Amino acid sequence: MRVEIKPSKIKGEIKVPSSKSITHRAIILGFLASGKTILENFLISDDVLYTISGCQMLGAKIKQNGKKLIIDGGGEIKPLADSIFVGNSGTTARFLMGLASISNRQIIIKGSGQLEKRPIRDLLCALNQLGIKVESLKKEGFLPVKIYGGKINGGKIKISGKISSQFVSSLLLISPFAEKDIQIIVTDKLESKPYVALTLDLMKAFGVKVKNNNFQKFIVPAPQKYKAQKYKIEGDYSSAAYLFAGAAITGSQITVSGLSPNSLQGDKFFLEILKRMGCRIKKQGKNIAIKGSAALSGISLAMANYPDLVPPLAVTAAFARGETKISNIKRLKYKESNRIKALASGFKKMGIKVKTGRDFLHIFGGEPKGTKIQSFDDHRIAMAFSIAGLGAEGGTIIENAEAINKSYPNFFNDLKKVGAKIKYV
What domains can be seen in the chain, in order of their start residue? Predict the structure, then answer.
């Protein structure tokens, strides 16, 4: 799918989609809980559908009733097949690897070609420490993997926090099923802490207690059981960031609704970023209004805890005065694409000067020109350059724009509703 975006002012209100991160976790917990869990306001996207189908293949009974997702997992993993395909969903792969560890049979987890390039060695080693046999079937430390299910022993395990916080979350989610107390020790700095905070908050909501020692050691006492819940999923700050960026670069004003003011989602930090760059923001309940500025200013930021905000930040920086220095982003090369390279490539084509390194991206703001952009089948790259197209001179064409279906299927329709000039070509 090819989409053309032309310069546009946007104005109005958009209800943001539900949180992808919370939806994934809530589905897993509903599966592991005893009783019937009802999830309200859940997200429907490609990634979430892979998590639903994966849980069903592991024995969960899941059905949709209008805007509700009803899960009857029963807390037991009884696989219906020997192999599960998770597409390009890294979250699904990592969480299902944990679930497969407590199943009663061998399970192969496999994904698309790009997902098979993303390292998972640290999670495999951690599962080994729990007494679970796992093996990579092609390249050591990568998907596809075979997991020999059984009982997890518990005890003390060590894991790095440098590659992905989802490894820690996967271990935490299955920890109540261990034979004895589990201690998860992060051997270095845990990046993306807000995502682990989300996991802990949801585990608490489903009835399991975890002792958290400054995100360096987690203790999960045994035995504990998850209890089914009726849970309403809040709006997604990660998706909202692109809408905020659209207002910022065009000097427009929009209101985004459905966002919890007390959310633990780390990506609400984007609002503080935009304030520093010169935008005006007004919060009222679950509505956030943002007014862009014709005089955005470049800033310097370390983004280790907010990797998914780098694409919308980079877009805003491309229209700001001066240089924006984005650092601590080396993990971006392990995403759906190498996002440092993808962003740099796109901005260079738009006439924007950039400097890149293993752990940084520097953007020198200017006047982006419309051009043809490759999404690299990465939803956040597709959305980022679509937003850039709202402010760029001339038309911007996004190749493989269907990548948005991974997290925000209604992205283009929502932008059209507030005045964006978008057409499929």
Answer: 3-17+235-424 (3.65.10.10), 20-213 (3.65.10.10)
